[in-house]
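Sequence in, structure out. Go.
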Amino acid sequence: MKEFCKFNPLIFFLVFFLIVFNISEGSSKEKISWLINHWPPIMELDKLHNEITGGQYGEQLLLLQSVLPEYEHLNIDMNWKRFWKGLKKELSICSCMVYKNSEREKIAEFSTPMTVVLPNQIIMRKETIKNPKSLSLVDLIRNKELKGVLIENRSYSKDIDKILQTYEKDSNITRSVISEKSSIKMLTHKRMDFIIEYPFVINHAIKQYLPEYKRVLGSVPIKETSLFFYVYVACPKTEWGKKKIIRINEVLKKIRPDKNFRSKLELMYDKGQMKLISKFYDDYLLNEH
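Output:
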């Protein structure tokens, strides 16, 4: 036992080498932590194993990570409040599903646009829709013959909120605590005439829970809002973040035209909406650098 306890330089350096080797191997790749959360059909998670299992942005993120093999990608289920706090603290975290505005640009580095998304639209019964190309929200609110129901305390975007603040008070719009499933049922049973919602939210709710209403409802773009929005990758406004965004931009330029990458749009939109979103993708997104 005493002989065993004696200092042995050969064993010491062998153990030291193995420890250093293992540490260097374990930390050979720089890490990027990604925000993930469960919001079908944008992103779907296996909560038990904290893994991405589907959704447009979820599958596009996996494709993006696959062409960035020099990094170790850590997917972390976190809420948006935690993410924005993390960026303010300059933590090494990124997200692939961020809208850009002037306030966010103060704390985040943004990539070239990763994809496009249809904004909130007016959802009606198809029999009520007169002009499927677009509809003025102001005119709709002023129309006393049509009843709308909106979600209590919800923001629908800066442009839409501004219109609602101006015209909602004396309109036929009421606010309620209501789910997508409930609003779809109320629309189809003619208890209301319109709601405002993202088309992909309605698509998912009908597909998952209410397939019998598949051909009953339609969506109409709102004249007073943009036809589409870009979605970006955002990282902290640091040297670390700038370097990651430069590299991400390089690979986005290569994978955005890829058939597999762009086909993920089909996870959120129906055939009619795909014609519209594909046009925006081709005419605008692919020309962004």
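Check: The radius of gyration is 24 Å. The first strand starts at residue 30 and ends at 36.
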